[in-house]
């Protein structure tokens, strides 16, 4: 009897411990939802079809943050940029205040990011120190068709928030077929006038002036979109500029697409990384796209202001069956037979690349 009682007591204590631990975990998890002052933004990433499993993999890239209102931090950013350029009037001052605020946020660690699709919730990830939570969920083909429609090009979802939080944070993911055409496009000086080679002008175009489209590019992209092309905007600009850049592309009638940008934080002391060469970054982004969609054809569009010819030439040599064409916008005054282009596109068939 004594042994039984002791054993029973142990079991009761064990069960109580487990329930207490469970309750603590639930309470801890509940505390990880966004607080009222915090926000989450979803960046579009391409969903892919798993034919063997009969399902779609939908990636989710979320960023949890809280806007910062401290004038001191904005003053430091203003002082840093002021070494190169200053706002010239009230209109530019207003633009600066809006864009600077995008960099002056507190990235939230430990926020539980889940998304709701139809009546189902999917846990994605817990946000790390930089606030960027990365993960994916899967949907069977039949369920996706029911939720999005048989001919849907995108799947939509929204953030799961805490009890009583009625805000809505929505995201979408383009559904990319295994075959088809994809256009990989640079942003600065390819579709948006930035003057990247001039640091002073780059600061002005980034922080003080309305974004200006390169003439004719939206029409060219619309023609590709009419052929069924998907678009991937790859920029060495930081994620903080995603909002105004997405608004810029929509306002100028560029096709919607996925976005691939650089992670960077003012608080990391890496502000100068904003102006680093994008060549290695772009290769690190585009290579995985090519591997993820090995049966798709790709058109690469960039400019001569930085290292797009060199990066795209390397990609064409490494993936000759996938890279269909390369288009480089001339902003440096170099002719197609310049030594630079001969080196950048060596062993790439001449009919596959063009300077315009």
Short overview:
By secondary structure, the chain is of the alpha/beta class. The protein has helices at residues 2-30, 71-82, 90-103, 141-148, 199-208, 217-226, 242-251, 279-292, 308-318, 339-344, and strands at 39-43, 47-50, 55-67, 105-107, 112-117, 120-126, 132-140, 154-159, 170-176, 180-185, 230-238, 258-262, 296-303, 323-329, 353-355.
Mean model confidence by pLDDT = 88
Q: Termini separation (Å)? A: 92 Å
Number of strands: 15
Number of helices: 10
Give the helix proportion (percent range).
25-40%
Structural class, by secondary structure, is alpha/beta
User: Low-confidence runs (pLDDT<50, min 5 residues)?
Assistant: 1-31
Give the CA-based shape.
globular
Task: Please tell me how large the radius of gyration is.
Answer: 24 Å
Series of secondary-structure elements, N-terminal to C-terminal: HEEEHHEEEEHEEEHHEHEHEHEHE
Beta-strand content bin:
25-35%
The profile of the biggest β sheet is: 9 strands, mixed
In words, what does this structure look like?
This protein is α/β, with parallel strands linked by helices. The protein has ten helices and 15 strands. The chain has helices at 2-30, 71-82, 90-103, 141-148, 199-208, 217-226, 242-251, 279-292, 308-318, 339-344; strands at 39-43, 47-50, 55-67, 105-107, 112-117, 120-126, 132-140, 154-159, 170-176, 180-185, 230-238, 258-262, 296-303, 323-329, 353-355. Strands 1, 2, 3, 4, 5, 6, 7, 8 and 9 form a nine-stranded mixed beta sheet that branches. Strands 12-11-10-13-14-15 form a six-stranded parallel beta sheet, covered by helices on one side. Helix 10 links the parallel strand 14 (323-329) and strand 15. The chain is globular and about 65 Å long. It starts with a helix and ends with a strand. 31% of the residues are buried. Mean pLDDT is 88; it is low at 1-31.
């Amino acid at each position: 009897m004594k042994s039984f009682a002791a054993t029973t007591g142990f079991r009761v204590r064990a069960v109580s411990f487990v329930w207490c631990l469970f309750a603590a975990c639930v309470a801890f998890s509940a505390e990880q939802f966004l607080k009222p002052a915090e926000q989450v933004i979803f960046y579009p990433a391409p969903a892919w079809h798993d034919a063997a499993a009969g399902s779609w993999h939908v990636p989710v890239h979320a960023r949890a943050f809280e806007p910062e209102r401290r004038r001191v931090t904005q003053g430091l950013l203003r002082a840093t940029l002021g070494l190169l350029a200053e706002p010239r009037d009230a209109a530019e001052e207003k633009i600066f205040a809006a864009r600077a605020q995008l960099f002056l946020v507190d990235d939230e660690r430990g926020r539980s990011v889940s998304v709701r699709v139809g009546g189902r919730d999917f846990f994605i990830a817990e946000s790390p120190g930089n606030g960027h939570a990365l993960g994916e969920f899967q949907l069977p083909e039949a369920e996706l068709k029911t939720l999005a429609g048989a001919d849907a090009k995108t799947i939509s979802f929204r953030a799961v928030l805490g009890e009583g939080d009625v805000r809505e944070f929505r995201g979408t993911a383009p559904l990319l077929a295994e075959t088809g055409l994809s256009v990989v496009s640079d942003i600065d000086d390819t579709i948006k006038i930035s003057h990247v080679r001039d640091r002073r002008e780059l600061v002005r175009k980034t922080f003080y002036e309305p974004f200006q489209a390169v003439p004719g590019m939206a029409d060219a992209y619309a023609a590709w979109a009419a052929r069924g092309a998907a678009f991937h905007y790859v920029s060495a600009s930081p994620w903080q500029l995603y909002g105004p850049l997405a608004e810029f592309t929509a306002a100028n009638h560029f096709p919607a697409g996925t976005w691939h940008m650089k992670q960077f934080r003012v608080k990391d002391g890496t502000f100068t990384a904003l102006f680093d060469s994008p060549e290695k970054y772009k290769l690190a982004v585009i290579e995985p796209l090519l591997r993820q969609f090995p049966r798709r054809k790709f058109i690469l569009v960039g400019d001569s202001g930085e290292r797009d010819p060199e990066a795209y030439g390397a990609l064409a040599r490494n993936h000759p069956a996938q890279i269909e064409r390369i288009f480089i916008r001339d902003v440096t005054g170099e002719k197609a037979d310049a030594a630079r282009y001969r080196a950048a596109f060596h062993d790439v068939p001449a009919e596959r690349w063009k300077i315009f």
